[in-house]
Write a structure and sequence with these properties.
This protein has helices spanning 18-36, 40-43, 55-71, 87-99, 101-105. The chain is mainly alpha-helical. The structure holds zinc ion (ZN).
Length: 117
């Protein structure tokens, strides 16, 4: 990927509902921002034993959770949140964000850009 350029591909399942599309969109934009800010190496660090494949996904999980919560969508069977939020994952994501705040601070605006109300 060229710096400053990203292609986002959405699987058909992303369009199953407006809530799913919004959640998928900010997830992918989270990756784009991490890459564009040079945080991809940190984001790709394996988060072994903490329930996430890497640190980037931990920060993105927290951001997606906030989007769903703010919009009242935690019961909408969104991919990754089918049974609402996983308290364990929320805890480990907070732990990772505390250690590497840039990963979350760089993307947290995304959780507020989509509001249908
Ligand atoms: Zn991802």
């Amino acid at each position: 990927m060229k710096h400053g350029m990203s292609n986002i591909h959405f699987a058909p399942a992303a369009f199953s509902s407006k809530e799913q599309l919004a959640s998928t969109f900010i997830h992918e934009m989270g990756h784009v921002i991490h890459n564009n800010l040079g945080l991809s190496q940190l984001a790709n660090t394996p988060a072994s034993g903490l329930g996430f494949d890497n640190y980037g996904h931990a920060a993105i999980y927290k951001m997606q959770y906030n989007l769903l919560k703010m919009n009242g969508w935690l019961n909408k069977n969104i991919n990754g949140f089918v049974n609402g939020v996983d308290k364990y994952l929320l805890g480990t994501s907070n732990q990772i964000i505390n250690d590497y705040p840039d990963l979350y601070n760089s993307i947290k605006k995304l959780e507020k850009i989509i509001k249908f109300k």
